Amino acid sequence: MNTDIYSTLKFPFSPLNFTDEELTIAHLKQSLDQFYQWSVAEFKANADIEKLIYTRAKFIDELLIRLWKNFHIPDQVTSIFKSNRISLIAVGGYGRSELHPLSDIDILILSDKELTSQMEEQIGQLVRLLWDLHLDVGHSVRTLKICLQEAKNDITIMTNLIESRLIVGNQELFDELQQQILNENIWPSKTFYQAKIQEQLQRHQQYHSTSYNLEPDIKNSPGGLRDIQIIQWIALRHFGKESLQKNGHFVYLTSEEIDEINNCRRFLWRMRFALHSVINRYDNRLLFDRQLSIAKLLGYQGEGNRPVEKMMRDYYRVVHNITELNQMLLQLFEESILSLKSDKPYDIDEYFQVRDKLIDIKNNDLFIQYPVMIMQLFHTILLNPQIIGIHSNTIRQLRSARRKLDGLLCQLPQARQQFLQIIKHPDAIKKAIFLMHRHGILAKYIPGWKRIVGMMQFDLFHIYTVDEHTIRLLLEIADFTTEEGQKKHPNSSKVYAKLPKPELLIITALFHDIAKGRSGDHSELGAELVEQFCQLHDLSEKETKLIVWLVRYHLLMSVTAQSRDLQDPAVIREFAQQVKNKSYLQHLLCLTVADVCATNETLWNSWKQSLMRELYFQTDRLFELGIHRIPEHRSIAREHKKLALAQLVQDGYDELEIKQFWKDYLFDYFWRYTTEQIVWHVKNLLNHDLTQPLVVINQIPFHGGTEIFIYSPDRPYLFATVSSELSKRNLNIHDALITTNKKEFALDTFIVLDPYGHLINNDRHQEIKDNLEKALRQNHYTRVKIKRLSSKLRHFKVPTQINFLSSFNERTTYLELIALDRPGLLARLGEVFSNLGLSLRSAKIVTIGEHVEDLFVLTNKDNQVLNENTCDQLQLAIMMAIDELDNES
């Protein structure tokens, strides 16, 4: 503990001075609250964060010492039979004298031998008092022998003990613990190092191995405080406490790097202190609903989310630097601790050499003297497959050169040649571009990239910053060539393999979101930037035109597939006219699939995959037939009906009976449902009492979802009833197709998935079927009580937008709703449609993070398009329904 720190920051009172009368729960609680209020006030006054953290540890030390004495716990108990030494020891973060406002207080009560019943009672009273004070105390009571055994079996216990320090009690016993803990028989240095490296790797994987999550964990995310602590733990175990205090393990770092890592730690400490000051329970996550309060407490200013943007940019810069320093130091420790016999370095060329499978520069001034060699570094890695990474010395020189660079590397002709050679290599993304991103070189090459580094995206749809999302998009593209990627994306992988110049897709991906955060449409602005980039790199006019188009329309396929009626031939025709040709379609498919997957891993599911596949194949078929040869609705209906009849007759059904059955069906039914669906419907309905409702759940997935077919007398609020019942079963509707026969019976289909985007387990089918049929038999509609809006959703404000889109069908109206996702929204919309006497023909339900983008195809009671007056009434009714929902929640 650094006692000099405490002498410069005095808290207003010391627990050591409490009288016996003041050692009541009420007084101690008041004292703890006073100390907390004082420390927050000091923090707001910009007090040194190290002093605040250490002062809290000292305050708790003094409280424990005073209570230890109050319970008359001696340093040593001597009797006729035995002598027992006892120590109260701080371990873990508390052992480092680092205590934030909500940090755990981890203590070890150590003794020579088993405690007497009297001692157990005294210590028990102490611990219970600490709990009564609502201190988050983690305690253990162990003998020295048991403590050493548990440390030997558990690296977490071992780690806590090597940071331990004595608070009060027997000094000799504590010294003996320290001496034996550092014995090579307990977690030898090599074993400890390897275990800690594995521990860090597993921890990083929990956060998708990136520092650039939008809701990071200050302590545990890559580049967080744990990455600094792991360096300290390894150094402590290898060099020993005395050696470290004398020499310091940072002999591996330059003085500038020492200052840098200390500044990074201080920044994260301030952020963590602010977080603990605005929440009530221990947590280290920078969740969206906390970020603005923390930013303001840290002094960031601006309108709206501007304080958060500033704070998070600083945060991402800090964790990036910690990650680089962590990588450098662990690499240096590996050489020292594992005593690796380094293979003799061998030359690649006059500039680079290989040292233990890592690329290293031969002249430390190379990047400063010849900046173009930075690009040559990554090209050389690609050309030498035996290289698995960058040597710590080269990382250091790369960091130095990066900070001294004036202008962008792409302004150098030789650098542009290197870049083009890099992106043409089959391993470009994983072995070069990923490393360029990790070491900050993309920001020194690509115009505009620096602006998106650490750029926040304030929604629940994205989980990464803009730059990290872009890199993950590229990694998804690279996976199209792997066995795992081909299983995950069979269609996209086949299409990608046919692209003659996949490097064009790499440039597109790098620029697709480059203009986010600028004033205007980021797709249009990005298209302008990438056009300049292509021209600078002397790409052909044809190549440039393709890339520019892809950046401008990179959202087109996703929007069309998820938010438009793919059963309408006119939708496919319009999409094909925008895409223009098969080559553009192939590139757009690969870009779109990778983009969705890189946005949030949980968003990609079999339903979205089926939508992309259907849109791709329908458009591809249209290109083969000719855009103007797309079949009309009635010809599609006739074809479906013909094929369904042939299949049913083949399966043994009577042709005349089927034709008689179909007399009550309109042509809309036959063109909207596929041949397979029509056959499935007939087989179930022919054996059913047609006066009663029927619910059938398909055992076979349909378009990547679970298909529920409902046959029921049509009535007001039917859609609302079904939506409400499915919501009660925790099922999400993704698509709905609504048709009615001449006898006013509804034949509706709902495609559903569970909240995780998975198919519904077959063992749930009967329960869902029974409850739906029960709801359909009720003669009246009952509105169910809606669930409370989650606290996370409450943080977001999504302005409600109601748009009436141009319809390709003269008899229908397309309504697009963009709004905050609310419990009960779909059922309430069904009520609105019924109240206005409207018929819902189909619905496309798309939830994107915190908001929905739903499409409804509607007609009036005469099956005609809605007039202007009805549209106005509908818009007003929807707004009122949403306001009502908000008031109820």
UniProtKB/TrEMBL annotation:
Biological process (GO), any one: regulation of nitrogen utilization
Glycoprotein among keywords: no
Keywords: Hydrolase, Magnesium, Multifunctional enzyme, Nucleotidyltransferase, Repeat, Transferase
Record's catalysed reaction(s): guanosine 3',5'-bis(diphosphate) + H2O = GDP + diphosphate + H(+); [protein-PII]-uridylyl-L-tyrosine + H2O = [protein-PII]-L-tyrosine + UMP + H(+); [protein-PII]-L-tyrosine + UTP = [protein-PII]-uridylyl-L-tyrosine + diphosphate
Record-listed E.C. numbers: 2.7.7.59, 3.1.4.-
Regulation of catalytic or functional activity: Uridylyltransferase (UTase) activity is inhibited by glutamine, while glutamine activates uridylyl-removing (UR) activity.
InterPro entries associated with the record: ACT-like_dom_sf (IPR045865), ACT_dom (IPR002912), HD/PDEase_dom (IPR003607), HD_domain (IPR006674), NT_sf (IPR043519), PII_UdlTrfase/GS_AdlTrfase (IPR013546), Polymerase_NTP_transf_dom (IPR002934), UTase/UR (IPR010043)
Cofactor(s), by name: Mg(2+)
Coiled-coil annotated residue ranges, if any: none
Domain HD: residue ranges: 466-582
Pfam families for the chain: ACT, GlnD_UR_UTase, HD, NTP_transf_2
Residue ranges, annotated region (Uridylyltransferase): 1-347
Domain ACT: 707-791, 814-889
MF term (GO), any: phosphoric diester hydrolase activity
Region annotated Uridylyl-removing, chain positions: 348-706
Entry-linked Gene3D superfamilies: cca-adding enzyme, domain 2
Function: Modifies, by uridylylation and deuridylylation, the PII regulatory proteins (GlnB and homologs), in response to the nitrogen status of the cell that GlnD senses through the glutamine level. Under low glutamine levels, catalyzes the conversion of the PII proteins and UTP to PII-UMP and PPi, while under higher glutamine levels, GlnD hydrolyzes PII-UMP to PII and UMP (deuridylylation). Thus, controls uridylylation state and activity of the PII proteins, and plays an important role in the regulation of nitrogen metabolism.
Domain note: Has four distinct domains: an N-terminal nucleotidyltransferase (NT) domain responsible for UTase activity, a central HD domain that encodes UR activity, and two C-terminal ACT domains that seem to have a role in glutamine sensing.
Similarity field: Belongs to the GlnD family.
UniProt name for this protein: Bifunctional uridylyltransferase/uridylyl-removing enzyme
